[in-house]
TrEMBL record:
Protein name in the entry: Signal recognition particle receptor subunit beta
GO function terms (MF aspect): GTP binding
Origin superkingdom: Bacteria
InterPro entries to which the protein is assigned, alphabetical: Gliding_Motility_GTPase, GTP-bd, P-loop_NTPase
UniProt keywords, alphabetically: Receptor
All residue ranges annotated as the G domain in the record: 12-110
Signal peptide: none
Length: 185
């Protein structure tokens, strides 16, 4: 069994993205009730109609098997929580940048978060999650847009965050990429 101490903390993976994209849903799909939530009634209904929104960060933990745990963390997408998101990013080994590729500002919004991750002192590995149904053409146009904006070739995974199997699969891709990275010299 793996134990964690202050010198080897549980690896943390962050979910980032705009309000309503599905961060809380993804963490709930992974962790069920085993999470600390911070949703409160949404007072900013002009930006988004949903009833609850996340203030502060929310955390859960998940057993990958063999006693290996990762902590998953949701970061608010609203700008007034910039400082909190930057802290979480700098303290994470991996980040999921969640996006609706059909949104007009998808490339810009995802690009900002990718740039924020890349600017961290020890940059976390970043994967993009396409979190709404999207055509192959729309997904390709989005990926091309990111590349044209200088973000390189970033993997874009299609997920339905309401399905635990989808979120688990995305997590296992990220964890595999992380273990490859830690093995390379
Ligand atoms: N129709 C539809 N709804 C979705 C889909 N994926 C997520 N949702 C819903 O979008 C909402 C996302 O809210 P939430 O997880 O609180 O977003 P957060 O602000 O990023 O934490 C939830 O009500 C989900 O059920 C999808 O593919 N289709
Ligand atoms: Mg939320």
């Amino acid at each position: 069994m793996t134990t964690y101490s202050s010198t080897s903390p549980m690896p943390r993976i962050a979910f980032m993205g705009p309000m309503g994209v599905g961060k809380t849903t993804a963490i709930r799909a992974l962790c069920g009730d085993d999470m600390v939530e911070s949703d409160v009634p949404n007072l900013d209904r002009q930006s988004h109609a949903k009833e609850f929104t996340t203030v502060g960060a929310e955390f859960g933990q998940i057993d990958l098997g063999d006693g290996e745990f990762v902590q998953v963390c949701g970061c608010p997408g609203q700008d007034r929580f910039d400082f909190l998101r930057q802290w979480v990013v700098s303290a994470s080994v991996g980040v999921f940048v969640m996006v609706d590729v059909n949104a007009a500002n998808a490339v810009q919004a995802a690009g900002l978060l990718l740039a924020e991750a890349a600017a961290a002192e020890n940059p976390p590995l970043a994967l993009v999650l396409s979190a709404r149904p999207a055509s192959a053409a729309a997904t390709q146009a989005f990926a091309d847009g990111l590349q044209a904006a200088g973000h390189g070739v970033v993997p874009v995974l299609q997920v339905d965050v309401r399905r635990r199997a989808d979120v688990l699969q995305a997590l296992s891709v990220l964890v595999s990429m992380l273990s490859l990275r830690s093995e390379s010299p």
